[in-house]
Prior knowledge:
binds L-tyrosinamide; disordered N terminus; 3 helices; alpha+beta; two-stranded antiparallel sheet
Amino acid sequence: MTSRIRTVAMANDEDDTDTGVAVKTRAKTKRPPLYKVLLLNDDYTPMEFVVHVLERFFGLNHAQAFEIMLTVHKKGVAVVGVFSHEIAETKVGQVMDFARRHQHPLQCTMEKE
Length: 113
Ligand code: TYC
């Protein structure tokens, strides 16, 4: 938005005497979109490794991490957190990198909420 002031013509403005009233308009503030970070199940990544990932990169305590790991194991996928685009991208990168370095096929993705 450029100007936050607009003038509203008054009833007697028809003769160009410029007696408009300045009226404030609000600048539209759009909240940035949020992204869900998803963890996917597979048949090979050890459960303890997934729990460790959730503790290390998502700040979950052991009980929370274990619970989410079990949800992924049973249902195939779970949301592990919701973040800005940049933070979500960083988390996905960290998880994928860590899994690859340990030669586990664990997959982590993000999608717009
Ligand atoms: N299904 C895996 C196993 O039985 C455990 C697992 C859980 C793997 C969650 C990935 O995101 C995952 N060892």
